[in-house]
Amino acid sequence: MGATFVGMPPFPEAARTALADTRLRRNLGHATATIRAKRAAVVAELDDWEDLRRQAAAVKDETLTHLDEHLLTLEAALTERGAIVHWARDAADACAVVAEVARAHGIDEVVKVKSMATQEIGLNEALAARGIAAWETDLAELIVQLGDDLPSHILVPAIHRGRSEIREIFRTRMAAAGRPAPDDLTDDPAALAGAARLHLREKFLAARMAVSGANFAVAETGTLVVVESEGNGRMCLTLPEVLVSVVGIEKVVPTYADLDLFLRLLPRSSTGERMNPYTSTWAGVTPGDGPQEVHVVLLDNGRTRALADEYARQVLRCIRCSACLNVCPVYERVGGHAYGSVYPGPIGAILNPLLKGVGSDPVTDSLPYASTLCGACGDVCPVAIDIPGILVHERVKVVDAHRGDRPKAEALAMRAAAWGLGEAGRMALGEKVSGLVGRLPRRRGMPGGRGALSWLPFPGSRWTGARDLPTPPVESFRAWWRRAGRDEEVRR
Amino acid sequence: MTVAVMATCLGDAMFPDAPRATVRLLRRLGVDVAVPDAQTCCGQPMVNTGYLDEAVPLVRTTVGAFEGYEAVVVPSGSCAGSVRHQHRLVAERSGDAALADGVARLAPRTYELSEFLVDVLGVTDVGATFTHRVTYHPTCHSLRMLRVGDRPLRLLREVRGIDLVDLPGAEECCGFGGTFAVKNADTSVAMGSDKARHVRETGAEVLVAGDASCLMHVGGLLSRQRAGVRTMHLAEVLASTAEHPAGER
Amino acid sequence: MSARDDVLAAVRAALGPERRPAVEVDRAYRGRDPLPAGAGVVDLFVERVEDYRATVTRCTAADLVDAVAQALGGAARVVVPDGLDLDVPGAVPDDALTATALDAVDAVVTRATLGIAETGTVVLDHGPGQGRRALSLVPDLHVCVVEAGQVVRGVTDAVARLDPVRPQTWVSGPSATSDIELDRVEGVHGPRRLHVVLVEG
């Protein structure tokens, strides 16, 4: 577990490095195109998709508006069914609860179901620091863990890796973690999955404690839901004696019946399937079946900070499907690591600032700007989060948080532009000056006849480094209108 | 009715062919056109970069300049989107109730060019002639903020002599994104390079779009690559006639 | 203050004293048919289960025992849950078998609670005839008997019928992963083969 997001540079710099990684570009381009096509095909099967999205958003909004009541209902239902409920203000609280459960049973090894909440709180590192090994059992998480790497996608954390890299990781790293990879391992995905099966089966059969997250937590009945594909989730949720589930407080839905929306929206949005291979539900302890000691940790860790923003709290509707990552043209090119967080892509660009707050960390402050505001993310979001709107909203918060600082160049430029454009006379004057520039002779023309500006000093070089800019027109539109346009005859 | 043309700051100062063509096109269709002197910039660059206070005077100027016109036509999806969807935020920020009222009056009367032609004037054949091989890029804000759909393509299909070819991956963003183009220049260029490649694959002479900003970005890349493809605003193609072909003054 | 008090206080502070009125949820979607027009429910169920590269055998009640034996394809040791009303060749009763013992059997035969045509899913709530969850998880072949009358149209109907307090496993095809270059591979940790025996008539 060597890798960490701590100390990564702000988005533009991290993106520059990622853009130069040819293998990353190829792997991501292929993977995102594949999953986009799958999603589009299964979404097109449902003619009431837009209605389902709206209703799911309404269920989540209703829940968030009365979150305290739903959490108390959930706590009572879980307790009634034999689960032990814990509350965690932050990552440290939550990690301490998990570690304490392990310690109480003398356990120094746990198996894990893929869970964004436990990634977010750095649970594996916290357990390692207490001498407890946490083994990831999702194939992609295993690839990331064995490779001392970081996840780069919510659903497919090793999306940045290709098959030959994965073969190398398994060949060189599996032995140190348990059963080694077979000697004749090829890079065929079926062979790689087979190696993971053998390696992890030992761990599943021996495990006494598992840690999971939950996709949904039903307040009324205390039912937790885990949606997965490989069966590693079922192994963890079924075989060990002790199960601890770390659940963000926004995962609650009021009633079991509400799941009829989410179980239709989530698989189609995430893996592009009508239904994921396995969905497990359980409510507390079932005598004679599965773990006989069940803990649930209800996690805040910034969620109430997001909740306090009345407009942006809709981010807490997120069901972690990753559809927004797969359609994002920025994510497709730079990958997940550039976002410096376990939540990458458009949702990460708003969720991280909302969970952590803006104004203190340059990486977090750079995230709302990691978007062209093209809007593709908002269109695919199954719970209709206005991601582009929140991106702008968070940009405003970032700017406002720095209004007391010594103004940086961008702020000065914005103020100057606002002044220059604030009144038509000032703007016309500026256009006269730029028109003079347009009269200067140019060595090269752009197609269509305008002169080309191919080099500008900083910060204009940010543009001209790769793009020509047309020379300013000799006559602005405003000047043309006054000179000739106002009285021009109709042209046919 | 008298229709006001919103030139947009970029159109006025850098790409006057687009608003000029908008004026000529509307007049040809029998519309009485006004160009309010007081207009400058809708404030979108400030809003989208997070500078709401700085956008307040620009929104005030815009609302004042276009007060009283029955319709405002904008040859830009993103500026029309800014008036319709973002000015409200700026007015709220200003705390000025009169400004908020002005914004509420302006927003529903503001149309992107293709919306005005198809929905208000009810035309798709605008009597244009343009004898070139053309591909069309639907800009993100016209597509996903305004939902103009295929209106621009319906207009282009009726142009005499045009050889209109589909752009692969048309609905993917070109990478301009306002200040994104300089704040995240590397990513912006990576996206634009793919868009430029798709444009070249079509064999088109002219790349057409409804936003001068996106054209400035993709056109700048195509020019740097010596790709031999020029860019032209949708208004220029629609204003083009046999007697006054686009591209000539 | 305890973490519980702190979190609840933070939630209440975030929401403020005056909350927006409850958002209205329109449940009209529950009345709509999720299936393509004219599709037969059972036929579509079969088609969509097969879409996941699971195997489906259709049989009558009279042929069921034979069909299950066929589906087992010579599996020597087959664990059977309590309350399974079928004769299964090579049956090993679930005598509180450990996970390791389950790992040494070849197959499992269960019944199901319902099937979902919209998604090609079978749902187990692990009652009699279905067994505790580990039974249908550890062995490599899962033969699942579904009665045609148990097949519902969509996810909405399924949720309406299921008991939220019982543990459930929703199974759509064999275990699968797409974690390597988005290439789908069937068979990771759950049963690598799923064989649905559909009983009609």
From TrEMBL, chain A:
Residues 75-299 form the LUD domain. GO terms for biological process: lactate metabolic process. Keywords: 4Fe-4S, Electron transport, Iron, Iron-sulfur, Metal-binding, Repeat, Transport. Residues 315-385 form the 4Fe-4S ferredoxin-type domain. InterPro entries: 4Fe4S_Fe-S-bd (IPR017896), 4Fe4S_Fe_S_CS (IPR017900), FTHF_cligase-like_sf (IPR024185), Helical_ferredxn (IPR009051), LUD_dom (IPR003741), LutB/LldF (IPR004452), NagB/RpiA_transferase-like (IPR037171). The keyword 4Fe-4S applies. GO terms for molecular function: 4 iron, 4 sulfur cluster binding; metal ion binding. It comes from the Bacteria. This is L-lactate dehydrogenase complex protein LldF.
UniProtKB/TrEMBL annotation, chain B:
GO terms for cellular component: cytosol. It comes from the Bacteria. One of its GO terms (molecular function) is oxidoreductase activity. This is L-lactate dehydrogenase complex protein LldE. It holds the Pfam family CCG. Residues 3-83, 134-218 form the Cysteine-rich domain. It comes from Phycicoccus duodecadis.
UniProtKB/TrEMBL annotation, chain C:
Transmembrane segments: none annotated. It comes from the Bacteria. Residues 103-199 form the LUD domain. This is L-lactate dehydrogenase complex protein LldG. The lineage of its organism: Bacteria, Bacillati, Actinomycetota, Actinomycetes, Micrococcales.
